[in-house]
Design brief:
By secondary structure, the chain is an alpha/beta fold. The chain contains 10 helices and 15 strands. Strands 9-10-12-15-14-13-11 form a 7-stranded mixed beta barrel. Strands 3-2-1-4-7-8 form a 6-stranded mixed sheet, sandwiched between helices. Strand 2 (49-54) and strand 3 form a beta hairpin. This is Integrator complex subunit 6.
Amino acid sequence: MPVLLFLIDTSASMNQRTHLGTTYLDIAKGAVETFMKLRGRDPASRGDRYMLVNFEDVPFGIKAGWKESHATFMTELRNLQATGLTTIGQSLRTAFDLLNLNRLVTGIDNYGQGRNPFFLEPAIIITISDGNKLTSSSGVQDELHLPLTTPLPGSELTKEPFRWDQRLFALVLRIPGNASVEPEPLGGVPPDDSPITPMCEVTGGRSYSVFSQRMLNQCLESLVQKIQSGVVINFEKTGPDPPPLEGKIHICFVQPWHCCHKLIYVRPNPKTGVPIGHWPIPEAFWPDQNSPTLPPRSAHPHVRFSCLDAEPMVIDKVPFDKYELEPSPLTQYILERKSPHTCWQVFVCNSAKYSDLGQPFGYLKASTALNCVNLFVMPYNYPVLLPLLDDLIKVHKFKPTIKWRQSFENYLKTMPPYYIGVSGFGINLHFNFCNFLLHFLVF
C-alpha cells in the first residue's frame, strides 16, 4: 500500500500570479487533483493512502495523516491558504516523522537483524513549491537544513531522517507572470537549482523545474510512473574493473557505473499481494551481544560489488530472493557485456567478524534475455554454504558425517547470528531451514 504524501508550500510567495491568471497555490492544488486522476487509472491505486502537510508549524502543518479520511484530505487541500514563511526544512522533517511514526512499533526496519527488502512501506513525498528563498523566524537561509532532533522514538537508529523505501520529489514552479514569446523547449524537464534538489537526490528522487502547464502535466505523468514497490540501495564497485570488451578501450578513471544510487524493485506475491522473501541484506557491523545500544545505520545500505566473474549458484531446497534493479549506468554496463551465465558477487563492509569487506551475500546477474539486471540475495557466505548443503542432500542423504558437521560448524562461525532462527519480526527462513540443519549438529 503506497503512501503518497503531498508537502505543499503555503508561504506568502505562493500567492503570486502567473500569466495564466492563477496563483501558484491554485496551480499546486490543481496538480494534486490531476495526479490523483492519473494515478486512479491504475487498479493498484485502490490501496493508496494520501497524506497532506503544509509549511505551518507542528502539529498544525499536518492536515491529513494516518487517521484522516480521503474526504478530509480533499477538504484540507481545498482550504489551504498561503500566508506563512518558506520553512521547508522543518516541514520536510515533519513529513518524514509522520511517515516514520509507526515503524518502530511494527518492527519494519528490523534494526540489528539485517535489512529485509520484503519488509517495506513504499512512500513518495511530492513537494510543490515556488523555489523562493528559504525563510524562517530567524531570517533567510541559503541552504536547506532539517532539524537534527526529533521526539520520535527510534529515530536515533538511522542517521538520516528518511528510510530506504521513502523518496522525495519536488515540483518547483517557475511559471512566469508574463507569457513568454520564446518557443517552449521540447524534451525532458530539467532538475531545478533550488536547495531542495540535493535532498531529493539523496533519497533516490529528483526535482523538476516547471516553466509551463504543459511541463507540469509532463511531470505529473512521470511521477505517477515513479510509484514503485522497492527500496533504494547504494551500489559501489570494489576491486579492479573487469577486462574491457573486445574492441573497447579500457578507461582507468572513475566511471558512472562504479557507484549508483538506485531502486531495487520488490514485487508483491501475485497470490497474497504482499512481498515474500527469505534473506536479509546484512548489517554493516558484527552484533555485539554485550553492547546496550545498536550503532546507527545509514538509510540506504552500501552494497559493494566485485567485478570478478563468478558462477551463479543455486541448489534445490535452498531458497533465494531475486530483485530487479532500476535501470542505471550500472545495469547498462552489465547488459552490454552480454554475460548472462556469470555474475558479480556483492558484499556489505564490516558485516563479517574477521573481514573488512565481509563475505558475499548474493550477486548481480544479467537476465538470460539480457533485458534487465537482478540482485540475487542468498544465505550469508553462500559460496561456502551451498556446496556443503549440496553434499548433505546428494552425497550424505541427510546423514551428515563428523567431517561435514565440523565444516558446517566452521561455516556458522562466519555467519552473523541474526541469520539463525527467527528474528523478533520474523525472518522467514523457508520452514526455518537453518534450524532444520542445526538439528544435525545435535549429537
